[in-house]
Amino acid sequence: MDPADLTALEQRRLLEGRRLSARELLDACRRRAEATEPVVNALVEVDWERGASVADRLDAEPGFLPDAPLRGLVIAHKNLLDTAGVRTTYGSPAFAGHVPTVSHPLVGLLAGAGTVFVGKTNTPEFGAGSHTFNPVHGLTRNPWDPTRSAGGSSGGAAAALACGSLSLADGSDLGGSLRNPASFCGIVGFRPSKGTIPGFPPLDGRLGMGIEGPMARTVADAALFHAVMVGHSTMLDARPPARLLVSVDHGDLPVDAAVRRVVAEAAAAFAAAGWRVEESDPPFDGVDACFEVLRSLGYALKVGALIDNVSVKATIRQEVSDGLALADGAIAHAVAQEHRLGSAWDGFLGPDDVLMTPTSQVAPFPVGEEWVREVEGRPLGRYTDWMRSCSRLTVPGGPSISIPAGWSDDGSLPIGIQLSGARNSDRRLFEVAAAAEEILGVGRRPPVEALSALDPASLPPGPGR
To answer: 0.90 exceeded by the pTM?
Structure first.
């Protein structure tokens, strides 16, 4: 089998047994990327030669990072993650020439873990919106159907992983950016508990919902990656929860029929396997307003100086405008609501309970649409409204994971389910996700041979600006 099609754990076993060299794995990932990238466009700032210098040293010097847990695995960093000496644009023309001098703490941590860095993964401008396109690096397409969105904002990471161009990829998540693209591309995306991943200090102590996390092709790969990020054991046992609470629509969200079907089928499969399955909607009164206020505040603090820069995406300038207009009382109320919702979450879920919901309210949508404006016939007024199945689960601060669970009605597009656990129960949630994966099956590989045969010029363009 092509090494690019192996899981990260399988690749690691071969590397450790010296049945596969780091350079051979890198070359396999490079061949896959060169076959699929002309269509998918998931990787940016690519430097295979830089990766080759690290891979060759790992092969030639057994004493170089000898016990590193990710030694030889191929990785790229999201283009929001500052990487010293590497152009990091955040997908914005305002930062088209930006080369950081200081790396995000995860960059050094993952280099020390033995990864082979080959570039950045594409993202929407400043990570705004779950559709990966920007005027600097272009549109990332879904590897299952390149006329469809790969999701976002970690869409480049998800698409590159699905294709086999990377072993692992980091991402970040505020309103669903690790989870939504995982659902769209048929991989695994894990949002850790609030405050558990190394990073730069927040710009403001009131902001803490954004977090980095792991993406991978399987639950076990994601658990391995997460363990390295937090410095915990990599051992994982698959065990079902005490109770699986199921909410198909959070009680009031519009959800496409195909997504509803996949969630219902997964719940039935878990019940048939002996899991205790109950229907229950989470206590989310006031959650959307809380999220929107703190999201806008974050954008105002981070990129407020760009409010009049017409080269910046209109939705970002609107976020900044909304954030700058916030009164201190509105911000204080949102912070209080965030704490209240976290406490309500603690009361809703027992320490060994898990909530299952849709990851995304829709299947992957056409690339020409900037965002989803209608679900189940209900019009949506804001570019984040269709992402509430994820953003609501951001606010309480616990972990959530998206795993592949089913397919669109025609069988062509992956659809994920989202499992969410009690705060700081990250390792336990991985165990539940691993048990769920055993029942539902591991996501299959997209049709990479068909991708490589496509003419990119024949495909529909992304959104206009």
So the answer is: yes
